[in-house]
Specification:
Blueprint lengths: L1 H113 L2
Length: 116
């Protein structure tokens, strides 16, 4: 019955090998599920990063636009300030001219009255 014991021993090893193989297959399936979940998470993160990039690029474009408008406004205010200074100088000159003209007229009228 040595032959029967060897056959039973082989069957036992075969059953043990099948169980080990089943456990290995289960681990592989579990690992494949984890890989699939990881891949799905990576794709979601990639999509979120793409959306964030679009938002950042849009915000950056708006900042450049505002910066350009601010520069234009600064130049405009500078131009207006310069024009205001010129107008004040011209107004002062006109006022001085009018005062001088009035003085000359008064001097001529007063001088003319003395000669009569």
């Amino acid at each position: 019955n040595n032959y029967g014991d060897a056959s039973a021993d082989q069957r036992g090893r075969l059953v043990a090998a099948n169980e080990t193989l089943d456990r290995g297959t289960g681990r592989i399936r579990h690992a494949m599920e984890i890989v699939a979940e990881t891949e799905e998470t990576a794709l979601e993160i990639s999509d979120e990063l793409a959306r964030n990039r679009e938002k950042i690029e849009s915000a950056s474009a708006r900042v450049r636009q505002v910066s350009d408008l601010t520069g234009h406004a600064r130049r405009l205010v500078h131009s207006m300030t310069k024009r205001e200074k010129h107008q004040k100088i011209m107004l002062g000159c006109v006022a001085l001219f009018l005062v001088a003209t009035a003085g000359v007229i008064i001097w001529l009228v007063a001088g003319g009255l003395r000669h009569k």
